Amino acid sequence: MIQRFDVGARMSEMAVHNGTVYLAGQVAADDTLDITGQTKQVLAAIDALLARAGSDKTKILRAQIFLADIADFPAMNAVWDQWVVPGHTPPRATVQAALARPTWKVEIVVTAAV
Protein backbone atom coordinates (compact mmCIF):
# COMPACT_ATOMS: atom_id res chain seq x y z
CA MET A 1 0.00 0.00 0.00
CA ILE A 2 1.17 3.51 -0.80
CA GLN A 3 0.19 6.23 1.66
CA ARG A 4 0.34 9.81 0.35
CA PHE A 5 0.28 12.99 2.44
CA ASP A 6 -0.89 16.47 1.46
CA VAL A 7 -1.96 15.34 -1.98
CA GLY A 8 -2.35 18.12 -4.52
CA ALA A 9 -3.14 18.28 -8.21
CA ARG A 10 0.55 18.30 -9.14
CA MET A 11 2.34 16.53 -6.30
CA SER A 12 2.23 15.14 -2.77
CA GLU A 13 4.46 16.37 0.04
CA MET A 14 5.31 12.83 1.06
CA ALA A 15 4.66 9.20 0.25
CA VAL A 16 5.27 6.13 2.40
CA HIS A 17 5.66 2.69 0.89
CA ASN A 18 7.06 -0.54 2.26
CA GLY A 19 8.70 1.14 5.26
CA THR A 20 10.30 3.95 3.27
CA VAL A 21 9.40 7.65 3.42
CA TYR A 22 9.87 9.74 0.28
CA LEU A 23 9.68 13.52 0.69
CA ALA A 24 9.07 16.04 -2.05
CA GLY A 25 11.69 18.75 -2.34
CA GLN A 26 11.33 21.04 0.68
CA VAL A 27 11.83 24.80 0.37
CA ALA A 28 11.55 27.65 2.86
CA ALA A 29 8.12 29.11 3.58
CA ASP A 30 9.75 32.54 3.90
CA ASP A 31 11.85 33.06 0.80
CA THR A 32 13.02 36.50 1.98
CA LEU A 33 15.40 34.85 4.46
CA ASP A 34 19.11 34.36 3.80
CA ILE A 35 20.59 30.90 3.26
CA THR A 36 20.88 30.27 7.01
CA GLY A 37 17.23 31.10 7.64
CA GLN A 38 15.98 29.19 4.62
CA THR A 39 18.02 26.11 5.52
CA LYS A 40 16.65 26.16 9.08
CA GLN A 41 13.09 26.35 7.76
CA VAL A 42 13.66 23.53 5.28
CA LEU A 43 15.16 21.26 7.94
CA ALA A 44 12.27 22.03 10.31
CA ALA A 45 9.82 21.09 7.54
CA ILE A 46 11.70 17.83 7.02
CA ASP A 47 11.54 17.09 10.77
CA ALA A 48 7.78 17.73 10.78
CA LEU A 49 7.07 15.55 7.75
CA LEU A 50 9.21 12.69 9.02
CA ALA A 51 7.43 12.84 12.38
CA ARG A 52 4.04 12.58 10.62
CA ALA A 53 5.29 9.41 8.93
CA GLY A 54 6.57 7.92 12.20
CA SER A 55 10.20 8.56 11.33
CA ASP A 56 12.91 11.07 12.22
CA LYS A 57 16.22 12.46 10.97
CA THR A 58 18.22 9.55 12.45
CA LYS A 59 16.52 7.30 9.87
CA ILE A 60 17.39 9.34 6.77
CA LEU A 61 18.71 7.04 4.05
CA ARG A 62 19.88 9.84 1.75
CA ALA A 63 19.58 13.56 1.20
CA GLN A 64 19.83 15.57 -2.01
CA ILE A 65 20.54 19.27 -1.57
CA PHE A 66 20.07 21.82 -4.32
CA LEU A 67 21.61 25.27 -3.89
CA ALA A 68 20.79 28.20 -6.13
CA ASP A 69 24.31 29.52 -5.49
CA ILE A 70 27.13 27.15 -4.55
CA ALA A 71 28.77 30.06 -2.71
CA ASP A 72 26.10 29.37 -0.01
CA PHE A 73 27.57 25.90 0.57
CA PRO A 74 29.54 26.79 3.76
CA ALA A 75 26.61 28.63 5.39
CA MET A 76 24.18 25.84 4.51
CA ASN A 77 26.63 23.27 5.89
CA ALA A 78 26.90 25.20 9.17
CA VAL A 79 23.15 24.79 9.71
CA TRP A 80 23.16 21.18 8.48
CA ASP A 81 26.02 20.25 10.83
CA GLN A 82 24.08 21.56 13.84
CA TRP A 83 20.93 19.71 12.75
CA VAL A 84 22.22 16.28 11.81
CA VAL A 85 22.65 13.74 14.61
CA PRO A 86 26.28 12.62 15.06
CA GLY A 87 26.64 9.00 14.01
CA HIS A 88 23.55 9.27 11.80
CA THR A 89 24.91 11.39 8.96
CA PRO A 90 23.22 10.16 5.80
CA PRO A 91 24.69 9.81 2.33
CA ARG A 92 24.27 13.21 0.72
CA ALA A 93 24.75 15.03 -2.55
CA THR A 94 24.85 18.81 -2.93
CA VAL A 95 24.68 20.54 -6.30
CA GLN A 96 24.10 23.99 -7.67
CA ALA A 97 20.83 24.19 -9.57
CA ALA A 98 18.38 26.71 -10.94
CA LEU A 99 15.46 26.39 -8.52
CA ALA A 100 11.84 26.89 -9.57
CA ARG A 101 11.65 30.33 -7.92
CA PRO A 102 14.55 32.78 -8.05
CA THR A 103 14.04 33.68 -4.36
CA TRP A 104 14.56 30.11 -3.16
CA LYS A 105 18.13 29.51 -2.05
CA VAL A 106 17.95 25.83 -1.03
CA GLU A 107 15.77 22.80 -1.70
CA ILE A 108 16.29 19.47 0.06
CA VAL A 109 14.89 16.06 -0.88
CA VAL A 110 15.04 13.27 1.71
CA THR A 111 14.35 9.55 1.68
CA ALA A 112 14.10 7.85 5.09
CA ALA A 113 13.15 4.60 6.77
CA VAL A 114 10.06 4.49 8.97
Shape: globular
Main β-sheet, in a few words? Answer: 6 strands, mixed
Strand order of the largest sheet: 1-2-3-6-4-5
Helix/sheet category? alpha+beta
Mean pLDDT: 98
Q: Determine Rg (CA atoms, Å).
A: 14 Å
Task: Provide the CATH top-level class.
Answer: Alpha Beta
- Count of the separate structural domains: 1
List the uncertain runs: none
Question: In short, what is this structure?
Answer:
With 114 residues, the protein is of the alpha+beta class. The chain contains 2 helices and 6 strands.
How do the helices and strands line up, and which of them pair or pack?
Elements: E1 2-5, E2 14-17, E3 20-23, H1 35-52, E4 60-67, H2 73-83, E5 92-96, E6 106-113
Parallel strand pairs: 4-5
Antiparallel strand pairs: 1-2, 2-3, 3-6, 4-6
Helix pairs in contact: 1-2
Your description of this structure?
The protein is an alpha+beta fold. The chain has one domain (2-113): 60s Ribosomal Protein L30, Chain: A. It contains two helices and six strands. It has helices at residues 35-52, 73-83; strands spanning 2-5, 14-17, 20-23, 60-67, 92-96, 106-113. A six-stranded mixed sheet has the order 1-2-3-6-4-5, covered by helices on one side. The radius of gyration is 14 Å and the shape is globular. The chain starts with a strand and ends with a strand.
What key attributes describe this structure?
114 residues; 60s Ribosomal Protein L30, Chain: A; 25% helix; alpha+beta; 6 strands
